[in-house]
Design goal:
By secondary structure, this protein is of the alpha/beta class. It has 14 helices and nine strands. The protein has one domain: D-Maltodextrin-Binding Protein, domain 2, CATH 3.40.190. It is about 45% helix and about 20% strand.
Length: about 325
Amino acid sequence: MVNFFSKLLPLVLLAFAAGCTDGGKPEIEANKAVSTTKPVKLTVAHVLADTHSEHVGLVGLADELKEKTNGSVTLSIISGGALGSENEQVNQVQTGALDMSLIQAISLFQGLDSRLAVEEVPFLFDSREAAYKAVDGPFGDKVSEILGEKGLHVIAYWENGYRHFTNNKRAIVNPEDMEGIKFRSAASEIRLQMFNELGASAIPMAFTELFTALQQGTVDGQENPLSIISSSKFNEVQKHLSLSGHIWNASVLIINPKVWNKLDSEQQEVLQELAFKYRDSVRLQIADDDSKIIEELKAKGMQVNEVDTAAFQEAVKNVRQLYIDKNGDELLTLID
């Protein structure tokens, strides 16, 4: 037995020496060639066209996310409502069937909590800067808290923008001009009440069905930010654009909480920082593009006009009280 081990020991020492580098450290540790981080593949969906500023922002975010995490986190983007309406995508993120989504309004979450219809109150924000201050401050924190209780983690508030009316009937200058026009509306009691106060008809409909409905005359008009009117090519099926700016919408970047927690702290930090970076660039892009889009839509044949804002504010003043009667004024107070 002693003779056996005396022959084996030199072989063991030789094998150990072969696996070491200077200083006696194993070669694999010295080169640090193996990463123990498990790759995470994320998918984010939205209903917008590939040409929209927010899609472009998501592409930039995805590219940098892969770079800054050394490929440990990748993000695939599914656009154009390929995974269904925004309400369907919210449900998919809740259940974990979808990792992330960019939802085009806080008010689209009102099915989870009716208080979140607050964005539907017309003429709520005097300026973009006021809107940013609200969603990036205590108001946004409260919305994030509410959505957190519903199984959704908010990463950042991007921008959808100011909504304007388009239709095929007539130029809208005064509230009376809305009479008898059939508008597509989100399925929101507050939004429907706004149309009712203005004397228009409103038909609840998913955004993914809108272009065909306008094309076929199911509805006469719709209301959306200029960036969506342009990127969705509504100018091909709409004649009049009336610059009302009656509602400002955030866009909400959400993620399933279990998916968020699957990321390590460094990965979370990178995703959070990039979400803020591209939030700011998208906001800038949408604001800068508005005047350019108006000229482009004019060149494509749309007739563009301003509205009597004071008259519209007076006509819809009861909508705010309708919201308060149902939901209280906590969120409005935070905004104010």
